[in-house]
Amino acid sequence: MDIIGIDVGGTNTDAAFIRHGRVVGMAKVPTNHEDLIESTKQAMNEIMAYYATSGQVQLHLSTTLSTNAIIEGTGSPAAALGMPGPGVNLAALDLGFPFFPLGGYIDHRGREVAELNEGEVLAAAKEAKRAGAEALAIAGKFSHRNPVHEQRAGALVAASGLGFSNVTLGHRLSGRANFPRRVVTAYLNSRVASLQTHFCRIIENLLEMEKYRAIREVLILKADGGTMSLEESCQLPVETILSGPAASILGAQALSKHTQENAVIVDIGGTTTDIAVIVAGEPLYQRRGADIAGYRTLVPALFTRSIGLGGDSEVHVQVEEGEVRFRLGPRRAGTPAAMGGSRPTPTDAAVALEMARIGDRGRARECIKELAEPLGLSWRQAAQGIIEAFTGQLVEEVRAIYQRLAGIPLYTVSEILAPPDFHPRVMVGLGGPAQVFIPLAAKLMGLPWEILPFSEGANAIGAAAARPTAAITLHADTELEVLTIPEIGYHGRIDRALLFDRQRARQEALRQAASYAQRLGLPDHEDVYIVEEESFNVVRGFHTVGRIHSIRAQLRPRVRRIEVTEDIADGKA
Amino acid sequence: MLTAKHKVGLIFFPAFDWCITPDHPEREERLLYTRDQILEEGLLDVEGIEEYRPFVAEDKDILRAHVCVPSVAARVTESHRIAVGGTMLAADLVLDKKVDRAFALLRPPGHHAMRIVHGSRGFCTVNNEAIMVEHIRHRLSPKTRIAIVDTDAHHADGTQDIFYNDPGILHISIHQDGRTLYPGTGDVQERGGPAAYGQTVNIPLPPGTGDEGLLYVMEKAVMPILADWEPDIIINAAGQDNHFTDPLTHMNVSARGYARLTDMLGPDIVVLEGGYSIEGGLPYVNVGILLALAGLDYSHVKEPVPQPTQPPQVMGQIERITETVMRAWATRDQVDRSRLFGEGEYFQRHRAIYYDTDNLLEEQRELIRLCPDCSGWRLIYSKASGYYSSLTSRGQIAAVVIPWLACPKCRAEAEDKYELIAKEGRCRQVFLQDVARDAFTNWRK
User: Fold this and answer.
1) Among residues B66, B80, B112, B135, which one is catalytic?
2) Is the bond leading into B408 cis (omega within 30 degrees of zero)?
3) I need a surface site. Which of A161, A399, B123, B272 has the fewest CB within 10 A?
């Protein structure tokens, strides 16, 4: 099967055509911010030129639709109803959107402490509607342990005839704890739901057209680097945020020779450099969830750190005790002088020193010289200083990331004595300036390096390389005889709870994950495994009266390996 | 998003894979529900609450406060080393000004562990706070004035033992009256050794004491004493078993009461001690303490179960105890110490110490030199045996302790004594604890 990967990015929309695991064509069009669909269509048109005439095509789409809506504050006006119970005073939280606190309260084990007040739910929903909300989020504290309040409130609102375009229930978005993030995530989801639904309808209509007939399936990229179906994306649109950065990491993974070991991925662009971490072949996730536009969410997302350092960065000069020091970024200076700009950039330093062969070397040298002379330096000294500063700053950031990772909290004796090993074994670089800076940075860190053949478009290749992801969180409390799987809204009794041991809990988690993946129509749905598990006694007095099992099972995340033929790689396509 | 008024370093280490025994109160899931509550409240997202990973303490760290018989390795598990390391890290974060305050929310606890360690007592093996205190003095100066306010429902007999003759330390323990609860000690009349008389302050409270009584004692006794003594650093050994749901005690304090206490005390470092209401108490108390430390609103923290009211007769008792404590504090320098400690060259005391967790009985004879120039060197003879049979004894040991700021005469005498006891060979092991030189040696038969 052929796969088209499209990443609608901030500046450009990139597309890649993959046949039998090889890149056969790439395309790039400028992104039209007023009309993302238009950009998508253009990219589709261009990349379909590589279609061979027969066979089916799968389209993998990474869009900034939700990301932009959240950043720009657009989408449907929405409000949130919440059951916060006692604890942190939410009034101080300043969520930035209308929030209606309601009675009703579930404790940490999922027991109902105070009943939901149904009259209050309807009154708040009505008030939200009156104040202009078109979409509604409902989230309760500990709803991942017991979703009944959210479900009941959702049913009441649905039956009320208030006509919200979307009602999002918090527990469906994540099995993880964090009530404020649950409220925010549900709110954002409800806000962007209509936009995503509209987008999906247009895509479906496009596929009816003759020229796109070969495209049989459309998959949408998520922040965790996985894909989901168009239909699912209308339910959980918030998961599509930050899929662009995820696509770039996937692209690097798909193209790299280093598939199993720890690696640091460094994507050097003109304005910024994005750093990601691979541990034993799998990308690292954000610990608590994606952060976007000041909102902290529970959306599972790949970990990336973006720094203001790139080929077009501003060059600053500091003179300390007669010694000249260069400091780069965080802002962009503009087009490098070698390419027609007027201010010196790291790219100019590389061009002047013949480390890169682009643009006009004479102009680059001239521009560096103008900077160097008042400082009493030769152009060569200045250029070398800039290159060293770039490498130094990059390595400093990479080390800081690993230093933080080396200090992440661990909660067991065994982990503290043998902490997880994040340390990179190789530096994988991509982006235009990578050829210049990656070897130097890697050398400084004592690492081997690899430079991927694409300076641009790795994001589109990554989109094509993505495979579905799906996860469930099973929480079984054998004393209360209750089993909860929030992602599918399940909350039911455990039969013969005494016999529900760790082995049974594992089997159940795997079975539920597989059937969830199957319901989502995912291939390889049997390939599920356990990613996290905990099992604790429940003791009353001095007797064990039950056990709590908490297990997270997921479809094995995979990335297609993608090969590149020389002629497609940079500069020759 | 919430922003903390005071930057708080949280060292959370629940030791999910360590227990005394699976049904013991000190077991794997003790902090499970606390973790769930803290995560669900989103407290780790608060700007200014930063989580840190504990390090593993070394023998030397532990030996500054303890004499472990026969060795640190024989007495201490890796889990203890991590709890100690986490507590020391709490101090480091504050001393290095990385945070304003630190909370070592970790287990196993330590405040029943005394200077000599033959085993575990009161679920404790080594004393987290005491080791931290010695770490702080080792880093800063032996002259650093440190106050420890222990708010566990059990008397902090271990911490009291380690510092009872230490003029640099003010140790205040508020606890349920020892006549009604383990370990039985902690009477107002236990006021410290010859060199630090009055700096051990015990405030035993009657069973049934609630927020009102506890906060009364804080306001009328603890805060004035602290203001008077002017410590450089305040440590709160925050046991949480005064909570009204605790299964081992008989107190009526709420999570908000604990938060209010924390708010009033404004400690630099908080260290968890006991507290075994792992579902109904700890999650709420810890959220309350963390919010109070960060200077955030804790008025909405509330347990699912209503708080019983403090019995009416209790308040009168508390007022009388407070009065006694304050009178003792005010007159501590007027007491004729020669009547309490004798006029000889040495003060001597005999004690029997029971190790409930390991069921051992230790017999101890201690001599402290009544020195006019320093707090005096000490000699401790100690023998532990199984509670039911002294035949199980591993024999007598001796420990020579040279205190901080020891005068040359005490130092010389102590060093000679160590050599002499070793030469005599009557003890199976002789220890020399010399904090000022950070030297801890021992001789074995």
Assistant:
1) B112
2) no
3) A161
